[in-house]
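Mods, move this if it's the wrong board.
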Amino acid sequence: MDPYVVFGSAVIGFLVGMTGAGGGALMTPMLILLFGVKPSTAISSDLVAALFMRPFGAAVHLRQGTVNLRLVGWMSLGAAPMALLGSYLLHVLGRSGGAEQTIQRGLGAALLVGSAAMALRYAVDRRGRVRRDGVVHDLHVRRLPTLAIGMAGGLIVGMTSVGSGSLMIVLLLFAYPTLSASQLVGTDLTQAVPLTLAAAVGALLFGHVEVSVTTSLVVGSVPAVIVGSFLSALAPDRLVRPVIAFVIFASGLKYVGVPTATLGWVLCSVLLAGGVVWLVVARPWQVGAAEGEPQA
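Not the wrong board. Structure tokens:
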């Protein structure tokens, strides 16, 4: 086992437990960019490791009562077979000459879509015009849209290990806008269990898994995801998600072929623009002035 991989997977597992996102979208880029693991091996090893990680997070949310099992069932019905198909397509791509580059470009595109979707969710949350006070167990499940969400997410997860949190939880947000973040996270983590099982079976069948990498991921992520799931009810979701979206965005740009120097300028520009937007929206100087006013 690599202690650095264990530590990195622990950090990512903690974020997954708290927010439901960041698993494949952060774990796979970490393996490829920091530790030089081949993309196909990183994707498959991450999927098998998630098979051990996500049930613990789901169990915590089931205990907290933040899961709609009917919603989980319809999503899984679409996601599981498509995840197997995605794993098979990854195997087919692995036989071609430019397979690794093709996989990287596909992963980068998935990450960029995920970061854009998370930014949209953050903007919706900031507006605050929709009250997210729905009760997850009283939810009316929209079968066809939920099935379609599962199918789209399952195919992407099978091919890239990205989507069970970064993409699907955002699609759930727009399909069921009254649910709170904790209920979305709990339901998404639970549906990710059968989805990850199907994708992991495909990865094992087609032989891309590296045992040492998978073991390191499991040892680091499982305890961390339990802690993160217990803290999810108190986690500052509005602060954590922009950070995750930024990391996903940076990884996606790197995978689609953006040069390192250009990537640095783009990320600096995004951080600067984000800081300006925050100042305009939050206006912290007005909050400080209001707090300093004498009481009547």
